[in-house]
Amino acid sequence: MKKIGFIGLGNMGLPMSTGLIKAGYHIIGYDLNEEATLSLKKAGGEIVSSVAQVVKKSELILTSLPSVKAVEEVYLGEGGLINNANPGKPLVDTSTVSPELNVEISEVCKKRNLDFLAAPVSGGVIGAVNQTLTVMAGGPKQTYEQVLPVLQVVGENIFHVDEQIDSGTTVKLINNLLIGFYTAGVSEALQLANKKNLDLDELFAMLNVSYGQSRIYERNYKSFIAKDDYKPGFSLKLLRKDLEFAMELADDNQLDLPISKSLLALYQAVEQEGYGEQDMAVLYEQVKKQSNK
Ligand code: NAD
């Protein structure tokens, strides 16, 4: 499979598709945002103007979309993938959406004899650029094996979690619940350092070799807090979305997670303050504003 359709050329989709171009694949890209399509064109991809054209020209289609609404539209909408797809052209959604939506799309695909895999990714923009993402795929093993060579280009650690379509999403939501905690932890702990006039670079050097170390501390501090620049990255509103899905998953499984619930409320409040489009690391700035008594 050398002709790959890619729908959603944002912070993740653009570097993922660029990595595939570098590996010799022909990418047929589609995005509602013209700037995103121009960036793919610059990287050597072909741009088309509808989902139907993506399907027509591709042997396999990947999607990286920001919301349930966008995934519903692209897969289930009138001009969407399922109405245009043909058996033998697998559809792989790398977005993080609700487990229910994975199941809904999978059921419709089964009726139409289409192969579908829900394969969310982790590792952020840097992982997409370096082609080192972790992929957590749920769905038929046969489809997974068929698309594995392509997943191995975008990522380094590729897992087939289970035949259950939403199994990869479950793993991903657990991952992002932890990201939510780490980001909040870093945001508060560093206020104590500020209050005690510690040098944050020196603190990082010490904690990076201590148990306080985490990849999220490194990411949030080095790439955002230290630079005082919160261009995403991974926007705070996308993390809030994932925390909502994680809480729904807990509710659906009769699980009470009160600390996680207050974590979600924190991100929801910060998004309402207008920080949603910035990287999740911006939580540090909001906590900074509120923590001084
Ligand atoms: P993004 O908002 O940067 O990009 C999404 C792209 O999809 C945008 O270019 C947008 O124009 C396009 N789009 C939206 N609706 C569309 C439609 N109907 N048809 C065609 N294009 C459409 O988001 P992102 O950060 O790239 O994230 C994409 C997905 O990957 C999300 O589900 C997110 O949760 C997940 N994810 C993101 C990261 C990260 O670090 N950014 C990491 C892992 C997973």
TrEMBL record:
One of its GO terms (molecular function) is NADP binding. Keywords: NAD, Oxidoreductase. The active site is at K172. Residues 167-284 form the 3-hydroxyisobutyrate dehydrogenase-like NAD-binding domain. It comes from the Bacteria. Residues 3-160 form the 6-phosphogluconate dehydrogenase NADP-binding domain. Belongs to the HIBADH-related family. This is 3-hydroxyisobutyrate dehydrogenase-like beta-hydroxyacid dehydrogenase. The lineage of its organism: Bacteria, Bacillati, Bacillota, Bacilli, Bacillales.
